[in-house]
Design goal:
By secondary structure, the protein is α/β, with parallel strands linked by helices. The chain is about 65% helix and about 10% strand. The protein is built from 10 helices and 6 strands; from the N terminus they run αααααααβαβαββαββ. The protein has a 6-stranded mixed beta sheet, covered by helices on one side. α9 links the parallel β2 and β3.
């Protein structure tokens, strides 16, 4: 828990440090805009003190945010601090028209700086917080347009203020969404690092001990137990070096069938499952797993296979699954189907609307291929 809290603090500090840089650059641009707008802001009809006051308040917020970042980043995540910055952003949006009082000018005072508060809200309160903060600032720009002299309540005139609300709200929501995704990625990386560390430790100890037990023990039950424990441990640590995971419930049942084959015949089984296996109905899953189990039994019992590969992937609106072994194989043109092949494999798959192909190669193993509807 402590490590997780430290990682969260590190992530938030990194993001808010970036926002701090953005905040200073945005304030500098606001000051430049004010200087470039001196001829307009000095017009007799304007209220320059409003513009200077707003820029000064924004400077104070920018400086205090930097101080809080250096002292304790958690200060910047307090709701009151974020609400204060968003309020200043709202005031900048509304105050532009109050300052210029109808005098035309090229650039609004606070077009960029309020984004810092919106992004901060998104980082701390996720997408919903960023959305609300963005909408508040957007409403400020909307109010600025509405109080502008000569504004007419017409459809075309309303597009611009409404766009401000939408754009700033989207910016806040996007900042929150990105932060959520970064947190998820951070957690996945941390888990992978922890698993890798545990795997190294166990590989040098427990797994090697289990391997020695399997080689030296004379009791079959002890050997089998050691083999099962090694397999389960490898699946947990590495998602199994002989397995490519995925497939949901069908995938789990196919892996269980392969494990049973290993236990019964002392051979190796590799399971390769596409990560996007489509779901199938329960009766179809039962038929497929049953047919694959029978194919594995044939490979071990009749073919004497030392290695089998179970493979599954989506295929043109159906689910394809095969079992390929390195056993004795057979001449499928000269040998009639046995009960296991005809009933337990072909019969099962046919009952659920699928089909089966069997490719026997004398001396080169057998491959059973099944297609079932999804």
């Amino acid at each position: 828990m402590m490590a997780e809290a430290e990682r969260e603090d590190s992530l938030v500090r990194g993001l808010l440090s970036g926002v701090a840089v953005f905040r200073w650059l945005a304030w500098a641009w606001m000051a430049v805009v004010l200087m470039l707008s001196r001829p307009e802001i000095d017009d007799p009809g304007t209220r320059p003190w409003v513009a200077y006051l707003l820029v000064a308040v924004a400077l104070a917020v920018t400086a205090s945010a930097t101080v809080m970042l250096r002292r304790d980043v958690r200060l910047l995540t307090r709701p009151a601090v974020i609400a204060g910055e968003v309020a200043v952003g709202f005031a900048l949006a509304v105050g532009d028209e109050l300052a210029y009082n109808g005098v035309s000018h090229a650039q609004m005072l606070g077009s960029v700086w309020p984004l810092a508060g919106i992004i901060t809200a998104g980082i701390v309160f996720a997408g919903r917080g960023g959305l609300v903060a963005g909408a508040i600032v957007g409403l400020g720009y909307m109010a600025d347009d509405l109080i502008e002299p000569g504004f007419v309540w017409e459809r075309r005139e309303l597009v611009s203020p409404l766009s401000s609300v939408v754009l700033y709200a989207l910016a806040g929501a996007t900042a929150g969404l990105i932060t959520v995704k970064l947190r998820e990625a951070e957690r996945l990386i941390s888990r992978a690092q922890a698993r890798e560390e545990i795997a190294r430790t166990l590989h040098d100890g427990v797994l090697q001990t289990l391997a020695v037990v399997q080689r030296r023990a004379t009791d079959e039950d002890v050997v089998r137990l050691a083999h099962e424990q090694e397999r389960e441990l490898r699946e947990y640590l590495f998602e199994s070096p002989t397995t490519i995971s995925g497939g949901g419930e069908v995938g789990s049942r196919l892996r269980a069938a392969a494990a049973l084959f290993e236990d019964r015949y002392g051979a190796g089984a590799r399971v390769v499952l596409a990560p996007d296996l489509p779901p199938v109905a329960p009766d179809v899953a039962d038929a497929l797993v049953g047919a694959i189990g029978e194919a594995l039994t044939n490979a071990g019992k009749h073919g004497g296979a030392q290695t089998v590969t179970v493979f599954a992937e989506p295929a043109d609106g159906s689910l394809f699954c095969s079992v390929k072994d390195d056993g004795a194989g057979f001449d499928d043109g000269a040998v009639a189907d046995g009960v296991g092949l005809s009933r337990s494999i072909r019969g099962r798959i046919a009952e659920v609307g699928g089909r089966v192909e069997v490719d026997g190669n004398p001396g080169r193993g057998t491959e059973v291929r099944c297609w079932v509807p999804t």
